[in-house]
Amino acid sequence: MAKDNNSLRETVERSRDQVLFWRPASPISWSTDEHSHSKGQLFSLQSGLAILETAAGVWMLPPGRCGWIPPGCRHSMRSCGNISGWSIYLARSLCGSLPAQPAILSLSSLLGEIVFRISEWKQDSPTPEFRQHLLTVLCDEIQNAKRQPLHLPMPSDPRLRRVVEEMSKEPQNNRNLNAWARFTGMSKRSLLRNFHHETGMTLGQWRHHLRMLVALENLSDGASVTETCFAVGYSSVSAFIKAFRLVVGMTPRAYSRIQQ
Question: What's the predicted TM-score (pTM) here?
Fold first, then answer.
């Protein structure tokens, strides 16, 4: 996909349009090196899973949501399974009121309809007044969309980085706070305070979100619900299903069906 990725980036950067719509002709796998673009990118999937990484953290986009990448943000992206969906690229002049950091956002029916209308502009060009009005509503919808809990913030402290790297190697590991404090050479109080200051989460919350994101990746790659449950540290399938549904908004089985 590297050649196709480069071709798309060149098209996006050359375009002088305020908004550019793109949809792959068929489901594809996706992997990019770290890069940035001068435009903002809004994208959504009908199938597959997109994993967005920056120095500040990891975001996972399952179907039914939309992802936002602001202009100039350096990032890499890869997919699990073959993805289908759409992207729109917005000129920097439209992005002033939009999120300054990447985000996974809810996808309202109005936002989806606006994107559909934009996708038809090449065949049926609207008047300049209508175009501007619709772009204003689009930006309002992005600005007011609810953020989704599919983000793992990364701490900058090297000791805390080692903690999350170790957790990521073994998401099923139930190492307790005392063990993590010994691992970092910090007191429990300092570990908790510093971790929450840098990530906005407790260690337990971070590990819970890690497990849900790993579960998304495993299910997207075809693992069963039971296999995924034990791989991320749950001993009860029913408890795993409940936790997954709270974060993702659907059961693991329903999510797996979307990927087929």
Answer: 0.87
